[in-house]
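Technical appendix A lists one of the benchmark inputs used to test multi-chain prediction within the project. The record comprises three sequence entries:
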Amino acid sequence: MLRLDGVVKKFGDKRAVDGISLVVPKGQMVGVIGQSGSGKSTLLRMINRLNDPSEGRIFFEGADVTRLTGRELRQWRARCAMIFQQFNLAGRLDVLTNVMMGRAFHAPLWRALLKLWTHDEKAMGLSALEGLDMARLSGQRADTLSGGQQQRVAIARALIQEPEIILADEPIASLDPRNTQVVMDALQHINRHFGITVMCNLHSLDLARKYCDRLVGLAAGRLVFDDVPAALTDSVARDLYGLESGEVLGPESRPDLVPAPGLAIAN
Amino acid sequence: MASPVVHLPEAQLRPLLASYDAAVRSRRFHSLLVMACIVAAIGLSSVSAEVDLAKFFGNLGNFTSYIWRLFHLDNGAWVWADPVEWYWGAARWLRLLGETLLMAYVGTALGAIGAFFLAFLAAANVAPRPWLRLLVRRFCELCRTVPQLVFALMFVIAFGLGPLAGVLAMAIHTLGALGKLFAEVVENIDMKPVEGVSATGAHWTAAMRYGALPQTLSNFVSYSLLRFEINVREAAVMGFVGAGGIGMDLIEAIRKFYYSDVSAILLMIVVTVAVIDTLTSMARHRLIGMEERH
Amino acid sequence: MAGRMKVDTAAIRSRHPHYFGPPARDRQVLMLAGAAAVILLVAAMAELGFFGAKLIGGIDKLGDIAVLMMPPSPGDWAHVRLYLLSLMETIAISFLGTLLAAVIALPIALLAARNVTVQRVLRFFTRRSLDIIRSVDILIWALIWINVVGLGPFAGVLAIMTSDIGNFGKLFSEAIEAVDRKPREGIVASGGGAVLGIRFGILPEVFPVLASQVLYFFESNTRSATIIGIVGAGGIGLHLAEAIRTLELQQVSFIILLILVAVAAIDVVSNQLRFALIGRRARLA
């Protein structure tokens, strides 16, 4: 179980994430929705500790992950895989080496540095790639692949971490429709078959409704929606995405999520 | 928890592993080949350059003790314990340092003035005569490829010991280096103003003055300032061949093992270079700022 | 044809006082600075002995020297052999010095790069040290190393190495700072430590840039290596200085010619290699 407790992230004066509390039970597939700049990305990055929260705590299975440092922090990151919008692969390295970075925490440093992976490790990497129909490209340089292929490599890297939770930060924003489906299907498959918790930032509400068990809506760094996808009515959605134009009112002045007529339509 | 990776059966895995290993092997072979070439070159070079690691590590102590001695006076005290004794030659060194700066200034200025005129003759877009352009280009190339110190050595014979030889050597080298850069600046200008002035029936000189020059001046000054920075460093060693500046005293101090003098002069050079670098980069930023305002 | 245009100077003057009044402050400052620069130049030239018989006499002598340098000639075959050998030595010095400098400068550059070394004080001192190394000329380093390992080419190797550690340290750290942060982030996010992040996230990305810089410096160092012989640190400079001192002017021009050819050859080779390196990257980008 993942629990966020009043998490705040400030960049200078700006509060990118402004006091979010959330409980995600094990095995759920959560879609995080909201406009760009609403704090979705920062939220996920804080869970992986790529950004440190300014206030608040994050707990996983009862342990405070905001306090971790050094080896324990790396162990947490290995348990909590991250998938990025821009794939974040090392373009000049071959596909399998990129995937093997998923074992970076488990393999001894000297072996990792020299790329001396054991037979089992390589078998694991290739199996993960094959599951995504990518094993035949294992020897190619990552920057020769298309965006969809690169994202599949990134998913393979996440898989061989054998994570307990996967954070996907706009995983399909740079992909075409066909690859969008491949990637989302893969995430759903991982979630359904292995019970791995998935938190996925999405821009598209249709996809969020289609794939997720639960949707969390952010606006201006605050939690403004948290329910099953069916509860996300059109008016709520419009409100969520029209907030930017109505920001003058500020979230405080809006006691509930009933859309103010004439305000939400601005989008 | 179950691993999300479904392991392939060995039979299916084997060809995949083999094809990956083959891809890696060919790349590895390539890099090994490059490495082998480099190692061979290192071996040959080491013989040619008389690399003697035993001597190096045997004498490495000399290096640290040399540095240590640089910062101690003859009486064994740290140099900063007695700055007056350390800088006993301050008056003379400051004069020589001043001379060094003047050398760099005059060398840069003369070279830049020469390069300024040559640039318009050497730039492909405005050059009045093709043969002249080629001639000027070759001349600039010769001036910047022959090391400055070689010019200095020859000029010392012609002009005698002293800063005159050094300045002239520096001016020639600067002429070559800046001539190339200035010509590139001129080649990158917008030709419309030049054509505009030419269309009024103006002479080539006038077209350059009113059409080309205004677009190039700030770049010229910026490059000259950069060159001045380099020339300050170079002027400090002109004295090594008797061509003036603080280098004369520095090489004497090094050769005769006047340790504290070496550190005193070196410190003066390092500080001067740092100050000049800061000033010129400030001036260049001012210049760019002024360009943007206009 | 109309006659000469009548110009109402007074009216124009009143409408555009800007063009006729005293020049703007900016312009004034610039003109003052220009005047000061010219005055300083003339004064400095006087101080350095430009306006005396020395200059005229020197130019006269220089003419004689130029005539005596033609045609370039090595004297005899023994000298050709000697010069070619020391030219090879020069190239060897340059090669080893550049390579050593690159190897040593890489970890230093990591210490100086903002995106790798978070520790501000450490980074500050690394950068200042590099600045100091760079402000000392290569010939001075040569003299210092001669005191440690004695006269000869080895001192030259060490001098080029020291001087280039300063240059490479700065250039490499700038290249590292310019690298895309995403690959490293991907590795760190999967539980890799700082070392793996650098090894797989930074080094492969910056390698072509660094290699290209090293090749570029190899060429310019060959030029430097020709002069360090003047102070006794090996290479062809020793023979060049000797020939100048003994006024063997035809040999001087021969050696200079030899140097020019060697530098041009290395320039071509290193440019080819750089093109191959960068071209390969461009193709795959």
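Confidence is low (pLDDT under 50) at residues 243-267 of chain A. Residues 177-194 of chain A form the longest helix (18 residues). Comparable benchmark entries are summarised in Table A2.
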